[in-house]
Amino acid sequence: MSVFQITIFFLYIIAGVLFGLSRLNAGTNQEKMLVAVAVISGLTGLLWHTWTLLFTIFVPPGLNLTIGNTASFIGLQIALIAIIGAVEPTLRGLCAGLLILAGLVAAAAGAQPPAEAGEAMSLQIQSHILISLFAYGLLAVGAIVAFYALAQDMRLRAGLLSSANQLFAPLETTERLLFGITAAGFLFLLIAVSSGFAFVESLFAQHLVHKTALSLLALVLFGLLLAGRLFAGWRGKRAVYLYLWGFLILCLAYFGTRYILEEVLGRSWS
Q1: Domain boundaries, the chain
Q2: SS (H, E, C) 165-217
Q3: Distance between CA 211 and CA 205 in Å, rounded?
Q4: pLDDT value at residue 47
Q5: How far apart are CA 197 and CA 188, in angstroms?
Q6: pLDDT digits 0-9 by tens, 126-165
Q7: CA 235, CA 233: separation in Å to the nearest integer?
Q8: Interior CA angle at 188 toward 186 and 194, to 5°?
Q9: Is pLDDT of 205 > 70?
């Protein structure tokens, strides 16, 4: 693990801890100072993380998309969404957890050995893959928010009251955030699937047919969830569980297929 990656880890952890403390000190003179330092730490971590990824993913003659680099890219998205979400004070408890998770993901990804060269591929294929990763990252954050919503629901039903309640946003706010992420993730996943049909000639080849079918199934589930929300007002556990099923299928489509192809069969996934 390089000095850059260690620094990224600590910057995210510091930002997360400070955002959490700001919620516990809401309404006090310390809150603004804690938030300001957290934002500076988080933004610095984002810049370092982005700079590092530019040199680890974009490796001539193409993209170096190891599982470690892919996870690090998603960790970058988690941190970015956390810092943006922290604009809403009630979401800073959630954002604290997201930043700590981003730090752990970055550290774990940094422990992976770097590839010597990227895999050669056309610009269209590179765009398809990066859009796909962006969709996965958005929906990964949504999965975390979904578990967060379940925890909120359990605390409300159990009547648990403590100072830690300030770390939890109102349930309705969390659900709005979840469906916002779902809508954005669905859009990018739709673009990714469409670009796959347009640019990937072997999309239904034997070694990729499972990835394609599972991605389409996940897309249908997320679309169904959005339609249910729009036309039937779906919310609560039904919506959360449907989201998590969609995300699980999406994980199987990418990480499961990727692992089997590269680690078990020794083949390229693209």
Answers
A1: 1-120, 121-270
A2: HHHCCCHHHHHHHHHHHHHHHHHHHHHHHHHHHHHCCCCCCCCCHHHHHHHHH
A3: 10
A4: 95
A5: 14
A6: 888 889 889 988 999 999 999 988 888 887 777 665 556 6
A7: 6
A8: 100
A9: no
What integer pLDDT is reported at residue 264 of this predicted model?
44
Contact 20/92 with Cβ under 8 angstroms?
yes
pTM over 0.85: no
On the question of a cis peptide bond just before residue 61, with omega within 30 degrees of 0, the verdict is: yes
Q: In what order do the strands lie in the sheet with 119-120?
A: 58-59, 62-63, 119-120
Res 13: pLDDT: 96
Distance CA 66, CA 56 (A): 10
Angle at 121 between CA 117 and CA 125, to 5 degrees: 130
Percent of the chain, pLDDT > 70?
A: 84
Higher pLDDT, residue 248 or 204:
248
CA distance 86 to 57: 28
Q: Is the pLDDT of residue 120 over 70?
A: no
Axis crossing angle, helix 3-24 with helix 92-110, rounded to the nearest 10: 160
